[in-house]
């Protein structure tokens, strides 16, 4: 196996264990790895091109979902009608 | 589930919990309800119904625990148990059915070389939204919970009554299906989808 400690230009082009790596990357993106994740992530992104691409794609998808799918306007009267119903039920 | 040592809140406490811990989540609740039902009136009913239940069963809410997750769980169950029955819209995939088919934690992770982060970033809100809405409800649900609302795997496991391993694998499958949708959009929009790095 080739050892590659160089910067981004020389990431290896094949990931040795796509299953494990991608699952790990996705857990890191989902905030499930805590502080431990950061070190692993830095290493993966620096050394492995498939991991690098997968990470950025997954991150882009999470970002657009978060930023573009949460703005459904809530009907004005909804909160009031809920309070009213609660009041009546007491 | 039986509630052990359930304490009773006073009226004042109930009102304080309801206003202070439940009502602040109304935006997220409505967004979730709308993405489950695709209908403003149904979403409103579902949210109202959820809050009524939350109030009725407020004694089983433990103060200091995650109110948002508690509310989302009630909403999800209301959706499955009641809304689904009276809904005119046939469900694409049934939760239980999916449970049986997709309860395995084994997932194949593959590299998606034909969808690029840049293409995704260029997409409009409607395209993302349509792609999400095209997913079967159980897959849509995990993406809403994780990516729109930021719930942890553990919280999602509680909301959905499934093991954490299933949360992880279902989420992964859901994202793969979403990527397929996005890929179609990207191709139809003429985005660069299958070329190698340009520079």
From TrEMBL, chain A:
Recorded superkingdom: Bacteria
Protein name: Mycothiol system anti-sigma-R factor
UniProtKB/TrEMBL annotation, chain B:
CDD domains: Sigma70_r4
Residue intervals of the RNA polymerase sigma factor 70 region 4 type domain: 127-176
Protein name: Sigma-70 family RNA polymerase sigma factor
Gene3D superfamilies to which the protein is assigned, alphabetical: 1.10.1740.10, Winged helix-like DNA-binding domain superfamily/Winged helix DNA-binding domain
Keywords per UniProt: Sigma factor, Transcription, Transcription regulation
A Pfam family matched in the record: Sigma70_r2
Domain RNA polymerase sigma-70 region: 25-88
Source lineage: Bacteria, Pseudomonadati, Bacteroidota, Cytophagia, Cytophagales
InterPro entries per the UniProt record, alphabetical: RNA_pol_sigma-70-like, RNA_pol_sigma-70_dom, RNA_pol_sigma70_r2, RNA_pol_sigma70_r4_t2, RNA_pol_sigma_r2, RNA_pol_sigma_r3/r4-like, WH-like_DNA-bd_sf
Keyword Aminoacyl-tRNA synthetase tagged: no
Domain of life: Bacteria
Membership in a protein family: Belongs to the sigma-70 factor family. ECF subfamily.
Species this protein is from: Algoriphagus aestuariicola
